[in-house]
């Protein structure tokens, strides 16, 4: 299956807002049928404990208070494979973090996971331009974007007040100073709830909307107080010469069935081996 819609292309307004704010909201990015397939694939997952595997997907929560994370989710079923080069965002990624018009032009998926959050918890603020790693840094040079990593967070459920939505500090991808409430630099050394974070806004999304943002922006997630679940998938894209964040390897079965375009994003540099005898 594939999404038949023509690829979206970033506009001059998109470039202005992405440069200024560090994020964009792509409305109605994924159609309802595809969303149903994604949610059905998640429904079929067994109840995994931390660190346990299901096939080539591992439960590896980055912050236990902020819900379940299923890492390497591209191996979670065909609906997730369709997200690799989805027409609603693939041209944005090539433009912002794909080393456009260079000798190493292309993309790589640094990390991909599904997040399922129920009541309670928040994800503390992290990243920001101050002393940020090159991996997630924002750059614009000689008329081209050169971002180290750009993320696509797809809402698989509606995300409104009380749902524990993603929060960002607009413009912080260019900050020369650390956020005073960043858990890694504030005097207490303890995480500050995103709900009370200076300068942060909560991004509300409809089911099927996508939040596209530079990883260098200060971001986190608010406290979830509503019943039910908040479900998102997050695919982090970077330059073609990168490597997966946690060292996950894709199964040969997945690589063999992908289109050449999708495989080139998961494995942009083909393995070079001597001939077998």
Description:
- This protein is of the alpha+beta class and 277 residues long.
- It has a single domain, classed as Jelly Rolls.
- It has 6 helices and 14 strands.
- The longest helix is centred in the N-terminal third of the chain and has 12 residues, at 32-43.
CATH C-level class: Mainly Beta
Name given to the CATH architecture: Sandwich
Terminal CA distance reads: 39 Å
Helices and strands, in order, run as: HEHEEEHHEEEEEEEEEEHH
Helix content: 10-25%
Q: What form results from the Cα inertia axes?
A: globular
Structural class: alpha+beta
Largest sheet: 8 strands, antiparallel
Please indicate the count of domains: 1
Mean pLDDT: 90
Low-confidence stretches: none
Name the CATH superfamily classification.
q2cbj1_9rhob like domain
**Main β-sheet, spatial strand arrangement:** 1-12-9-14-5-4-3-2
From the structure above, extract its key features:
single chain; 277 residues; Jelly Rolls; 4-stranded antiparallel β-sheet; 6 helices; globular
């Amino acid at each position: 299956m594939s999404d038949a819609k023509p690829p979206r292309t970033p506009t001059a307004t998109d470039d202005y807002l992405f440069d200024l704010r560090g994020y964009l909201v792509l409305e109605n990015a994924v159609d309802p049928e595809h969303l149903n397939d994604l949610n059905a694939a998640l429904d079929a997952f067994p109840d995994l404990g931390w660190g346990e595997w299901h096939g080539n997907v591992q439960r590896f929560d980055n912050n236990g208070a902020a819900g379940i994370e299923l890492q390497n989710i591209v191996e979670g079923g065909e609906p997730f494979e369709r997200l690799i080069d989805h027409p609603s965002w693939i041209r944005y990624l090539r433009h912002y973090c794909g080393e456009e018009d260079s000798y190493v032009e292309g993309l790589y998926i640094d990390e991909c996971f599904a997040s399922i959050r129920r009541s309670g918890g928040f994800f503390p603020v992290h990243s920001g331009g101050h002393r940020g790693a090159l991996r997630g840094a924002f750059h614009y040079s000689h008329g081209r974007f050169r971002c180290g990593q750009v993320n696509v967070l797809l809402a698989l459920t509606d995300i409104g007040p009380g749902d524990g939505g993603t929060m960002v500090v607009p413009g912080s991808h260019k900050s020369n100073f650390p956020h005073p409430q960043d858990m890694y630099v504030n005097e207490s050394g303890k995480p500050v709830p995103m709900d009370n974070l200076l300068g942060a806004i909560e991004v509300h999304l409809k089911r099927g909307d996508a939040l596209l943002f530079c990883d260098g922006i200060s971001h986190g997630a608010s406290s979830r107080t509503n019943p039910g679940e908040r479900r998102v998938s997050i695919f982090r894209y970077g330059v073609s010469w990168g490597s997966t964040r946690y060292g996950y390897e894709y199964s040969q079965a997945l690589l063999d069935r992908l289109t050449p375009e999708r495989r080139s994003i998961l494995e942009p540099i083909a393995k070079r081996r001597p001939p077998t005898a």
